[in-house]
């Protein structure tokens, strides 16, 4: 797990004041982090490396980089379309001007670029791009070359929002620490591989307290069985309430069984065709240790649903129930909610936090997850999306491993099945949401054929050998 910050200017200030590091030292390290990445990516000394720099310190990082790369590569090309404005950019440029680094006034005639380094705008982007900047980014995006962004792809602002266009990087080296702007669903399209550039001070000294965390692969704790003297009851009993769209519940039940629940029962009104190892019952069995409900529910009997919600058993709630105010009576520590953005908008309206559409939500996912968690700190929320956000007790965990191959009907039902399985096996609500989400996305990431053909059954198969 890594820490994520709302902004890093206070962290930089600490570097100057407490650790007596100057802006120049930090910048030299920022440029060094870029250099190290470039040396890994570009082996040929004759490669053409285009460094595009803006007027501020993001641009200054790029100018500094050109100096550091000069020793290794013959064809460094600096492009400063708007000149320089910040003091550091001026200082770095005066240094570079004493060297013979090529500078160009337009990229129109430039051919055969092997690498583009984007240092146009960083954390200082504070207004929409003008037409000239848009055109430059559009041109850079059309160049067929490797692409690295310094700090953040130019065009993404501090909220992770894009005004019009942004540089599309294969790799982003963000300076010092992870920032929340890098994790909006919108930004995911542009960031590429994300790495943190070291600013010459250990992470522990640089970073401070935060409530936001970035999940890593190593955080995944699979339900590996430790008991030797065990029986099926040792690993819990998951019950999935099957609705009128039966497929959803069947997928969730199968996922729950494959993720280790000792017993899985599908609660049905009439017998349905299901894998033989899933039991069927008209009621919630007495020894049930976790319940999944909401997926494919369709039309339902409110009294029956309330009776199930009244049971003091951990539950994962999905889909249709986010539109019903019945849910308001149960937002406590026994619940994991797994809405997709549209369902979360419905829930936000029900609980009186906001009346917004999906577009507004997607621009402000962290904000609304925070607001939900402030109001219902005990409830675990998992907001689906390109980057999944999980919150509980005012802490937010970000899972970035998901891929576009999950954009399919049934992916969410599998996730509910994985969560109920872990709940049944004794994981806490928060740990069930985190670990099920990690398993779900890592399986999708590992799928080896292409990014369009993954099915819910492939996810279940993947769970077997994650
Ligand atoms: N702090 C540190 O210790 C370290 C910082 N580091 C680096 O510094 C970067 C931040 O630098 P920064 O603050 O100078 O901001 P930056 O992103 O270069 O842009 C600001 C300039 O752009 C302008 N501008 C803004 N929007 C615009 C628009 N739409 N269209 C046109 N212009 C626009 C804006 O204009 P103004 O507001 O002045 O009108 C201003 O002149 C950070 O990302 C990291 O790379 C590292 O070296 C590590 C140490
Ligand atoms: N582009 C994407 N990148 C990462 N994860 C995605 C993407 N699209 C969908 N997902 C994931 O797939 C799942 C879809 O769930 P949902 O929309 O509820 O589907 P369904 O209800 O049909 O099962 C969620 O876990 C979501 O985070
Ligand atoms: K940038």
From TrEMBL:
Cross-referenced SUPFAM superfamilies: Ribokinase-like, YjeF N-terminal domain-like
Residue ranges constituting the YjeF N-terminal domain according to the UniProt record: 8-207
Chemical reaction(s) catalysed: (6S)-NADHX + ADP = AMP + phosphate + NADH + H(+); (6R)-NADHX = (6S)-NADHX; (6S)-NADPHX + ADP = AMP + phosphate + NADPH + H(+); (6R)-NADPHX = (6S)-NADPHX
UniProt-listed InterPro entries: CARKD, Nnr, Ribokinase-like, YjeF_N_dom, YjeF_N_dom_sf
E.C. number: 5.1.99.6
Signal peptide extent: none
Details of cofactor binding: Binds 1 potassium ion per subunit.
Superkingdom per UniProt: Bacteria
Residues involved in (6S)-NADPHX binding: 57-61, 122-128, 151
Physiological role: Bifunctional enzyme that catalyzes the epimerization of the S- and R-forms of NAD(P)HX and the dehydration of the S-form of NAD(P)HX at the expense of ADP, which is converted to AMP. This allows the repair of both epimers of NAD(P)HX, a damaged form of NAD(P)H that is a result of enzymatic or heat-dependent hydration. Catalyzes the epimerization of the S- and R-forms of NAD(P)HX, a damaged form of NAD(P)H that is a result of enzymatic or heat-dependent hydration. This is a prerequisite for the S-specific NAD(P)H-hydrate dehydratase to allow the repair of both epimers of NAD(P)HX.
Protein's name according to its UniProt entry: NAD(P)H-hydrate epimerase
């Amino acid at each position: 797990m890594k820490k994520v910050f709302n902004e890093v200017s206070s962290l930089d200030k600490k570097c100057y004041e407490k650790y007596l590091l100057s802006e120049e030292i930090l910048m030299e390290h920022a440029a060094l982090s870029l250099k190290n990445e470039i040396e890994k990516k570009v082996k040929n000394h004759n490669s053409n490396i285009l460094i595009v720099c803006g007027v501020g310190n993001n641009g200054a990082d790029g100018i500094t980089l050109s100096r550091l790369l000069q020793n290794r590569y013959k064809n460094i090309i600096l492009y400063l379309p708007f000149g320089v404005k910040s003091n550091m950019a001026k200082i770095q440029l005066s240094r570079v001007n004493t060297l013979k680094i090529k500078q160009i006034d337009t990229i129109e005639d430039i051919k055969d670029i092997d690498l583009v380094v984007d240092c146009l705008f960083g954390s200082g982007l504070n207004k929409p791009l003008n037409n000239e900047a848009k055109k430059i980014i559009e041109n850079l995006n059309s160049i067929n070359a490797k692409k690295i962004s310094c700090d953040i792809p130019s065009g993404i602002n501090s909220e992770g929002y894009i005004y019009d266009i942004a540089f599309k990087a294969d790799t982003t080296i963000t300076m010092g620490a992870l920032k929340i702007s890098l994790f909006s669903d919108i930004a995911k399209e542009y960031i590429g591989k994300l790495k943190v550039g070291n600013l010459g001070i250990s992470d522990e000294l640089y970073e401070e307290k935060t409530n936001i965390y970035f999940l890593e692969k190593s955080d995944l704790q699979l339900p590996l069985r430790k008991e030797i003297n065990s029986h099926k009851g040792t690993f819990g009993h998951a019950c999935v309430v099957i609705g009128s769209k039966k497929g959803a519940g069947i997928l969730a039940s199968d996922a729950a069984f494959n993720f280790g629940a000792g017993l899985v029962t599908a609660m049905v009104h009439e017998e349905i065709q299901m894998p033989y190892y899933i039991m069927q019952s008209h009621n919630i069995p007495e020894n049930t240790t976790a319940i999944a409900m909401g997926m494919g529910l369709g039309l339902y009997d409110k009294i029956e649903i309330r009776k199930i919600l009244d049971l003091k058993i951990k539950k994962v709630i999905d889909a249709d129930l986010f539109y019903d105010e019945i849910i308001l009576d149960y937002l406590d520590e026994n619940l994991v909610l797994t809405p997709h953005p549209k369902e979360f908008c419905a829930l936000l309206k029900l609980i009186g936090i906001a009346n917004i559409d999906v577009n507004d939500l997607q621009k402000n996912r962290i904000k609304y997850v925070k607001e939900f968690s402030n109001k219902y700190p005990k409830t675990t929320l998992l907001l689906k999306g390109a980057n999944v956000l999980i919150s509980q007790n005012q802490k937010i965990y970000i899972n970035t491993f998901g891929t576009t191959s999950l954009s399919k009907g049934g992916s969410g039902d599998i996730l509910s099945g994985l969560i109920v399985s872990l709940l049944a096996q004794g994981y806490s609500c928060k740990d069930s949401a985190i670990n099920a989400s990690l398993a779900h996305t890592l399986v999708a990431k590992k799928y080896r054929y292409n990014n369009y053909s993954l099915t819910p059954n492939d996810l279940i198969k993947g769970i077997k050998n994650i």
